[in-house]
Amino acid sequence: MFHSSFPPFLTIALTGTPGTGKTQVAKLLEAEGYQVLHLTEFICSCKIPVERDDERDCNIVDMDSLEESFFEYQKEKRHDFENKIQNMSLSDDEFIQHTKQPKNLPVLLVESHLAHCLCDLAVVLRSHPAVLKERLDGRGYSEKKVQENVLSEAIDIILCDCFDYCRRVYEIDNSSQKISDTVSCVKELIHALYEDEFLKFRSFVSQMNEKNKCKCKSKKQNISDSNPAQPVVSSGFAAKSRQDVKNISGQDLEDIPLAELAGTISVIEEEGVVVYEGDYDDALDETHPVLMKYIPGKNDWSGLVD
Ligand SMILES: Nc1ncnc2c1ncn2[C@@H]1O[C@H](COP(=O)(O)OP(=O)(O)O)[C@@H](O)[C@H]1O
């Protein structure tokens, strides 16, 4: 019999271009009791090797070393969670109720523009380039650094990156939101995501038991196999605001090979919306990432919860 005594413990990336609000949102969630890892602080406290790139005015982190330390940390967090629920005997419904309390939600939210490289689920905070520029101008960054970040947001660099690493990707556009609304969006999303992963996991376990198949390779892989292949549509700032971005950053997007910047995913513009059509197979073990745009109060979770 396939047996799993513990429900899943998830790590979810809270990622986005600098200035999109990751740190502030994560701090507010932490204050409510959610488990948050601020990756920049973690990199310092674990003494992960970092090289300075003076030309681009940024730090380059040794990702192998970061991965190693992060997976150890994640393992500890999962063990803590398993120890906590070890002696509770809750039905599935009771367990889901239990997780409604932030401190009981078995989710580690990892906040950083690198977080999606370490997690297989991602929430991407997005801000319109004009809004982002205003926020970054107030930070005392060099003009070049502001331009680079604004451009990166305009052409969905972080979002595209997420498709290389994550099996489920969600974006929240906070350009015209109050920060408290963004926090509510993230909360609703991570609870719904947990419930969905939990139900899929349970259904997987019972299917395995029914069929009495012990040969499953990995729980995670099988759960993600049930995601349907879908074309992915982004908020497409690049397409909507080519001229805006040119005005703001002084760079002409016409000169930039978008598909090249977007890595393995080719970018096609269709009627003002950027459609990503990708051959994700190599990067994602034949699974297809699912991108959902979060619209406050309007999301239909039926596509998410089976
Ligand atoms: N809806 C919003 N969501 C997130 N941040 C917002 C929002 N509106 C304004 N902000 C402001 O944008 C800034 C984002 O900064 P920060 O959280 O440090 O971004 P990051 O960590 O992504 O670099 C903060 O000053 C925050 O108060």
Automatic annotation (TrEMBL):
Keywords: ATP-binding, Kinase, Nucleotide-binding, Ribosome biogenesis, rRNA processing, Transferase. Its EC number is 2.7.4.3. It catalyses: ATP + H2O = ADP + phosphate + H(+); AMP + ATP = 2 ADP. SUPFAM superfamilies: P-loop containing nucleoside triphosphate hydrolases. It comes from the Archaea. It is an enzyme of class 2 (transferase). Transmembrane segments: none annotated. The keyword rRNA processing applies. GO terms for biological process: ribosomal small subunit biogenesis; rRNA processing. GO terms for molecular function: AMP kinase activity; ATP binding; ATP hydrolysis activity. Residues 138-148 are annotated as: LID. ATP binds at residues 19, 21-23, 139. HAMAP family: Adenylate_kinase_AK6. Belongs to the adenylate kinase family. AK6 subfamily. PANTHER family: ADENYLATE KINASE ISOENZYME 6 (PTHR12595:SF0), POS9-ACTIVATING FACTOR FAP7-RELATED (PTHR12595). Broad-specificity nucleoside monophosphate (NMP) kinase that catalyzes the reversible transfer of the terminal phosphate group between nucleoside triphosphates and monophosphates. Has also ATPase activity. Involved in the late maturation steps of the 30S ribosomal particles, specifically 16S rRNA maturation. While NMP activity is not required for ribosome maturation, ATPase activity is. Associates transiently with small ribosomal subunit protein uS11. ATP hydrolysis breaks the interaction with uS11. Interacts with uS11. Not a structural component of 40S pre-ribosomes, but transiently interacts with them by binding to uS11. This is Putative adenylate kinase.
